[in-house]
Specification:
Elements: H1 2-14, H2 16-36, H3 51-62, E1 72-78, H4 88-104, E2 108-111, E3 126-133, H5 142-151, H6 153-157, E4 161-165, H7 178-194, H8 197-220, H9 222-225, H10 229-259, H11 264-291, H12 299-330, H13 337-341, H14 355-365, H15 367-381, E5 390-391, H16 403-415, E6 423-428, H17 435-447, E7 452-455, E8 459-460, E9 466-473, H18 480-500, E10 503-507, H19 509-543, H20 547-572, E11 588-589, H21 591-620, H22 625-652, H23 660-692, H24 701-706, H25 715-720, H26 730-737
Parallel strand pairs: 5-11
Antiparallel strand pairs: 1-3, 1-4, 2-3, 6-9, 6-10, 7-9, 8-9
Helix pairs in contact: 1-2, 1-11, 1-12, 2-8, 2-12, 4-5, 7-8, 7-10, 7-22, 8-10, 8-12, 10-11, 10-12, 10-22, 11-12, 11-21, 14-22, 15-20, 15-23, 17-18, 19-20, 19-21, 20-21, 20-23, 21-22, 21-23, 22-23
Amino acid sequence: MATFLYKLGRLAFRRRRYVALIWVALLALAGFGAASASTATSSSFSIPGTEAQRAFDLLEQRFPGGSADGATARVVFKAPDNEKMSDPANKAEVDKVIGELKSGSDQIASVSDPYTAGAVSKDGSTAYVSVSYKVNSMELTDGTRDALEDAGHAAQKSGMTVEIGGDALMVIPETGVTEIIGVAIAAIVLVITFGSLIAAGLPLLTALIGVGIGVSTITALANVLDLGSTTSTLAMMIGLAVGIDYALFIVSRYRAELADGREREDAAGRAVGTAGSAVVFAGLTVVIALVGLAVVNIPMLSKMGFAAAGTVAIAVLIALTLVPALLGFAGKRVLGRKARKAAGAPDKTEDKPNMGTRWARFVLRKPVWVLLVGVIGLGTVAVPVASLEMGLPDEGSQPTSTTQRRAYDLLSDGFGPGFNGPLMVVVDTADSSDGKTAAKQVTDEISGIKGVVAVTPAQFNKAGDTAMITVVPKDRPSSVDTENVVHAIRDAGKDIKSDTGAEVLVTGSTAMNIDFSQKMNDALLPYLALVVGLAFLLLMVVFRSVLVPLKAALGFLLSVVAALGAVVAVFQWGWLGSLFGVEQPGPIMSMMPIFMVGVVFGLAMDYEVFLVTRMREAYVHGEKPGQAIVTGFRHGARVVTAAAVIMMAVFAGFIGSSEQMVKMIGFSLAIAVFFDAFVVRMAIVPAVLALLGHRAWSLPRWLDRILPNVDVEGEGLREQLDETPGGETGGERELTRV
């Protein structure tokens, strides 16, 4: 692989104009596709294999034209103090709002009257108007939303409190200025690392081109592939981080080859052949981890994984082709002014230990203490994982400054906490001899379940073979008590089916959230085992060792658990929540842990490969295990540190997003990179390798014969090129002809 990449790097360097033109053309093509594509609608949400999804599908089939996926809104009214909603003046204002809503848009399917629909609280202080739309929330026009928001303004002037809830007000989340700050921090780190604006600008430029192509392609295909708005944001987040890092490694190796006296074209080829091999492997691990999300069998999560994986693949291709092409345009200015002046002078910096060398020597002196401090520290941070609660956000998790949250609170105060998360019970009576009797039995059974405060009479479809029953639980939608109610209804449904033949299914947003969280819980450990097992096998091939991959996999697990602990402390417990913009602590989003595992796995393997391959290279060339660790840190610590800081800055930039899921994933990835890069790879890894000594690099002979040799370090390439500084060797001429 190293030989092929060497030739690819030299070809891209020589044909740099054509390579740059091709990538610019691809960017323009993707941009044109995004600009000409129709506005994306929201991604359809389905959970195959769950009871809630089966019930939803049954409703679509048995109640045609019901707009089950249409947007909804609730206009909530609260009367002034010492007044009732039934007072003539207040009732007149509500009737006026109903009239304005009905005439405000042709996208409205129905508007209910609270006085005839029983939507007035027992104390008479609160009432609500239910609004149903013919289309989903992403297809609502701005005029429709404006009509909804304006409808209650007149009522507010009369002294009533008017708030609006429901997904009709949901809009595509806006990206904040913090993402730009993250990129700016990355630029500063690159300038400090390279000491050259040209060298610092290359990774940024290539990463932005890669992200531009990836995100534009996602936007162009959003309607065709049913991609949600969050998909492009996550692809941008991961694409920026890996794009900058992969280019950073190539540029850094190129500068090192120039410092060794190589000609520029040869230096580009060697950089792609060595660092590029590690980029390919690291990118492959990220892609496999993201594509592996498909095993969870949640279409939305699978699409997010595929889209992000595609952006990572583009970042790898750009690092292998566009980066060496741009290095050809940059010339020796990529070295910076000081490095160019010292190019011909003897190198006196080799004898002066850098920070990485000094840290490695410290770890070698105190490996047990470093190991204990690292493991105990991460273990302490991981303690909150024991209290992990997973769920999907509802309007109760939104900031109190939003009208949706205020409407949620008004409904909770007026009708009870469970009113915001009603359950929909579907009774399939097609195989029952007496459907109405079966539905009546279901209603009676549910009414006697602890935690149920209201049950509506069954409503049958035109065919009379399916009934809907609305159940209002006592507690809020995300509570454990409400989850117990759902399970109790389902248990009662089993007995009813055996008695009457009618099938009882529970659905609705609350039940969907419960089923989704359960599916994520069930899939987390198998997916984690798949990822860790894959990490072990891949690293065994790369490092020709059993203990090094085992150590890497265990370190990855430690950093993931610690990161999850930090997420629970901030987003669920609310610790330092105000610092990270968490206004309302609550359950951790169900898909976040499994998505974080996939991404962090790939990033952890990045640092493992780039740092430890330098150590193995030194060990293979005859250095003792301890000295090999020092050599690896001398050459790799600075670059890995810069890469980690850049990734942290990019991910942390998304904490400012208005979308709760993006905010949480941005925080989790940033903190996971910190733990994995600076605690696991920089401290625990060298400490373990120091304690293992020669045993770390041993591999049974029978296993050595079975495993393929991928030559990530480019050792075979260097032997083929004779390792002669400067000039073109016979081996190089032979490779060029090939």
